[in-house]
Amino acid sequence: MIEIVAYNPAWPAEFDAIRAVLQEALGPLALRIDHIGSTAVPGLSAKDVIDVQVTVAALSPEVAERLRAAGFQQREELRYDHVPPGAAEDPRQWVKLFFNQPAGQRRANIHVRVAGNPNQRYPLLFRDYLRAHPHSAAAIDRVKRAIAAHHADDIEAYYDIKDPVYDLIWDAAQEWAARREGDDA
After folding, report:
1. Tell me, what's the pLDDT at 86?
2. Left, alpha or beta for 86 (phi > 0: left; psi -120 to 50: alpha)?
3. Residue 43 zone, left/alpha/beta (φ > 0; ψ -120 to 50; rest)
4. Cα–chain-centroid distance for residue 142?
């Protein structure tokens, strides 16, 4: 069942604990470890699952081995991210490794992506845009709650509707980031 819950101020601290375990497991293989997804946006409701992105130089066997050794459960079937309309459809740009938390630990989705790929930039830009645009975050909140209310038992329908809505934010976020980068020049 898909359940959307109110923002929990404990989510950042829960992320910090997960980040520490990932950093210990991966060492310098992790170029950065970020809190992503709706739980990373203050005030935004979400599924009660901490999404984490680990940025690496390459999706090497060593990365997967170290995460499995630390107890993270790899989901081999989740190898590619959704490709937004208009984005480069080269599958190498959207590949990832995906893990869930070790048994008995706080629910988490661990997305391992290559630095510089669009699927690595997407969740960071999405998060930052919603943090800076509370009206957009409120609209996303309403959309997620409505989808969950009508499709609580159908995860495929939830994502079939949610992904295109998020793609609207992706377009706006890219324009926003380009303007910010232009302001910094």
Report:
1. 86
2. left
3. left
4. 19
Q: Is 27 left (phi over 0), alpha (psi -120 to 50) or beta?
A: left
Task: Provide the pairing of β-strand 108-114 with 50-56.
Answer: parallel
Sign of the CA dihedral running 148, 72, 25, 79? negative
Strand runs (DSSP E) across 102-159, as ranges? Answer: 108-114
Q: Could you tell me the pTM of the whole model? A: 0.93
pLDDT of residue 1: 87
Under 8 Å between Cβ of 106 and 49: no
Domains of the chain (ranges plus CATH)? 11-184 (3.30.460.10)
**CA–CA dist 183, 177 (Å, integer):** 10
